[in-house]
Specification:
Blueprint (H helix, E strand, L loop, with lengths): L3 E4 L3 E4 L4 E2 L5 H9 L18 E5 L5 H14 L3 H12 L11 H19 L6 E2 L60 H8 L6 H20 L13 H19 L37 E4 L4 H12 L2 H5 L13 H6 L4 H11 L30 H4 L13
Parallel strand pairs: 4-5, 4-6
Antiparallel strand pairs: 1-2, 2-3
Helix pairs in contact: 4-7, 6-7, 6-11
Length: 400
């Protein structure tokens, strides 16, 4: 079925190089045949006439777009270019790429390199990101972690993932025998994300520290397993997370137009970046090779309403209307240790995370169930229950 011939009960032979327990839908193969890839260099514009690349929140993508991305990623995973790229992240994990002068531009370059590799296979590939702030109270119930072939599969309880297209037997990381996950806790809320984005334009040092130490490091080790190790880039989840981090940097840059000047003077090559300098990665509309990238914010109506409120009301005022459960998850010591956050940076982060941001009332977020290995997942929309609060909590701001 789905354009392939099954062999026994476990494997299928599919057209166009697909393999696994489920072939892609026939419609997806037909669409790929109508839109063949246009090969190009790894650094230049990959597809003739493609215009500005649009990256989307994974739940806003069509099923075809998600399936195409996953299939293309798995196909690229068998090829030398992608494996070499992923290994370079591990090899240079502690040699500068997670320091203030490289973290944001280096990973923007890393994402671009992956995207170029995928577009050499198929020009129609759309890069996804996961906005974990929209399901921060129940992040592991988000649909992205379902076992459907066009999503990412679920938890592994600290061991191998056993559902979805990246489960053991269907996907093998570059230097490990399986992809591991160990879902724990919650993820930073939309309140916290917008508090980070409200950092004054002239205070890049604090913005960079917070996006790296408070948001980036925390989610890495909340997903856990492979993501909470030096082999993190081998996890497909890595790019879901890092593309969102890059979007947040872009959001802050837009607020602080013209683009923040911090990296403009950093013209020397970044670590293992093929001669690319931090200054080359500042402008998302003019990446190396003339590539233009745009981010589409979540199109969920609830998320749109929140963006409108956050755009017009100071975060401190919003926070007074929210229960104290809508706060940062506790700082992950595993994450801070993994990324070698300095004692001085930890001290500064603790000051931000200790700031009162809420009204002192009880909440239920800590008692909300998470998805664990073996539990079926259901579609959970972006609602107050998943955010940790509802629009009723913001009723005094209803006129915004």
């Amino acid at each position: 079925q789905n354009g392939g011939t099954c062999i026994g009960s476990n494997m299928c032979q599919c057209r166009r190089g697909y393999s696994g327990r489920q072939c892609p839908p026939r419609g997806l193969e037909r669409e790929e045949q109508r839109q063949p890839a246009t090969p190009a260099s790894a650094h230049g514009r990959e597809c003739s006439g493609e215009g500005c690349r649009l990256r989307k929140e994974i739940h806003d993508m069509t099923q075809r777009e998600r399936q195409l991305y996953i299939n293309t990623y798995k196909q690229a995973y068998t090829q030398g270019d992608l494996l070499a790229l992923l290994r370079s992240h591990e090899a240079n994990f502690h040699t500068g790429i997670h320091t203030p002068n490289q973290f944001l531009p280096w990973h923007r370059w890393f994402i671009l390199r992956l995207e170029n590799i995928l577009k050499k296979i198929n020009c129609s590939v759309v890069m996804p990101y996961w906005d974990w702030s929209l399901s921060s109270a129940r992040p592991w119930n988000a649909l992205v972690w379902s076992g459907a072939p066009h999503y990412y599969g679920g938890d592994g309880g600290g061991t191998c993932v056993s559902s979805g297209p990246f489960q053991s037997g269907q996907f093998t990381p570059a230097t490990s025998w399986c992809l591991r996950r160990n879902f724990v806790g919650t993820t930073p809320s939309s309140l916290v994300v917008n508090d980070v984005l409200s950092t004054p334009c002239g205070d890049f040092t604090d913005f960079e520290l917070r996006i790296r130490g408070e948001l980036h490091n925390t989610v890495h080790c909340s997903i856990g397993g492979t993501m909470c190790s030096v082999k993190a880039a081998e996890a497909p989840d890595f790019f879901l997370h890092h593309v969102y981090i890059d979007k947040l940097w872009d959001d802050w840059q837009k607020k602080c137009s013209p683009y923040n000047s911090h990296f403009r003077s950093l013209t020397s090559s970044m670590t293992a970046a093929d001669g690319t300098a931090a200054s080359d990665m500042v402008d998302l509309s003019n990446q190396p090779g003339g590539v233009c990238v745009r981010y589409q914010s979540s199109r969920n109506p609830f998320a749109r309403r929140l963006r409108r409120i956050f755009a017009h009301v100071p975060v401190a005022m919003i926070a007074k209307n929210l229960p104290c459960t809508v706060q940062d998850p506790p700082a992950s010591e595993d994450g801070q240790d993994l990324f070698r956050v300095s004692p001085a940076e930890r001290g500064r982060l603790s000051q931000f995370m200790a700031k009162p941001k809420c009204r002192k009332v009880g909440g239920i977020v800590d008692q909300l169930p998470n998805q664990h290995k073996g539990n079926p997942i259901r579609e959970v929309p972006v609602t107050g229950g998943n955010l940790g609060f509802s629009l009723n909590d913001l009723k005094d701001l209803a006129n915004v």
